[in-house]
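Could someone model magnesium ion with this protein?
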Amino acid sequence: KLPLVAIVGRPNVGKSTLFNRLVGRKLALVDDRPGVTRDRREGDATLLGLDFRVIDTAGYEDEDPVTLPGRMRTQTMAAVREADAALFLIDARAGLTPLDEEIARWLRSETTPVILAANKAEGKAGESGVLESWALGLGEPIPMSAEHGEGVVDLFEHLRPYI
Ligand code: GDP
Ligand code: MG
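Reply:
Sure, complex below.
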């Protein structure tokens, strides 16, 4: 059984971009039940000779206040609880939002190890967001750019002890 890494974070921080970069075309286990592919996509990745499975969660991506989100959040929570480590992405360009803080609070209450990644940190525009994200209380933020492929190896080095 492969080590499991869950990618979590609010909408638009770059979770699926990172997932696609890690997994590429080796997408596996896409469940075709309605809604399920949206909630959770899994695929296998190999980085620096280590194989692991990645889950792309979307549990915080639905604005509907009553119906779907409850179930989707439940799926995200289940993914994190099942995972050997969680990659928590924030958007370093946008800075922190209340939803980032809410997710961080929840992650701090869980036992799954969390690696905090400050995505979209290419260039200078992300510098203040990277510094700001120390305030989430999840340790050192790893600056990265899922889109440009920067910082992914550094991220992996922080992940490696847990997988
Ligand atoms: P998700 O909602 O968290 O899955 O986010 P997506 O992966 O769909 O990305 C949301 C938007 O952010 C897209 O327009 C991406 O192209 C963009 N994006 C993702 N990663 C980066 C990055 O490293 N830098 C920049 N500048 N944009 C990014
Ligand atoms: Mg996505």
